[in-house]
Amino acid sequence: MAMSAQEIEDLLRETFPEAKIAITDLAGDGNHYAAEVIDESFRGQNRVQQQRAVYAALKGRMDGPSGELHALALTTKAPD
Fold first, then answer.
1. Which of 4, 36, 57, 76 gives the lowest tally of CB atoms within 10 Å of its CB?
2. Which fold has domain 5-77?
3. Which residues, 6 or more positions from 11, have their beta carbon under 8 angstroms from its beta carbon?
């Protein structure tokens, strides 16, 4: 089952309420998205730590072959 961009943003907002979040549907199929998440909580974290935090915020929606979200290209950073 596919996810909407709004569903992805809603999940991310639960963990990153003050973040700047942009979600782009890359293929128009509800399964391949790009997400940019800019949040102060990322300051001092490396890219892997930031991306792990985003994946954790998705609460298993990308887990395994039955995950609702197939692919998510991530850009994460702290605000400038």
1. 4
2. GMP Synthetase; Chain A, domain 3 (3.30.300)
3. 57, 58, 59, 61
